[in-house]
Specification:
It is built from 7 helices and 5 strands. Strands 1, 2, 3, 4 and 5 form a 5-stranded antiparallel beta sheet that branches. The longest helix has 23 residues. It is globular and about 55 Å long.
Length: 161
Amino acid sequence: MVLVVKQRQRMYFYCIVCLPFTYKWENHGVTFGMTAQTAQKICWKALSIWAPILKEAYVKDVSIDLFLDVGILLHSNFKYAHHDTDAMVTERNRPSSNHQEPKEYFSGKHHLYCNKMEASTYSNGEACNWTKYYPGATANTTIFRDNVQFHRMSTKKSPAA
């Protein structure tokens, strides 16, 4: 049991050290004396464990009618905008299998192998939604369309009181 706890502590330490810096995974691997694939795998495993806990703690679901009650100011230029949405790119190593798999992760727009996700925030910077990771070749509009249910729900007006 003690060994499992120490492994988890080490895994979270690697994650906390690696994520703030935008170095390649090879550099992080050298820092901890492991291969790039091992460093990347450890960090993604830690994030998959953290994600539900972090989402519950830091993501608010607020209807547009309750913005001022909760203390969220409206956008200065777009007073009727509920939230901002943008696609984010995370660089990854080139998959080392046949030719088809690496093509799926190569983004022609960014000219690198990556994962993409969509994140939405309120005007004060608090997160309100994010999606799963998509391969880099997936278009941003496709990610937005897959998440259209959230956008429709969050911008729906409630009946007047």
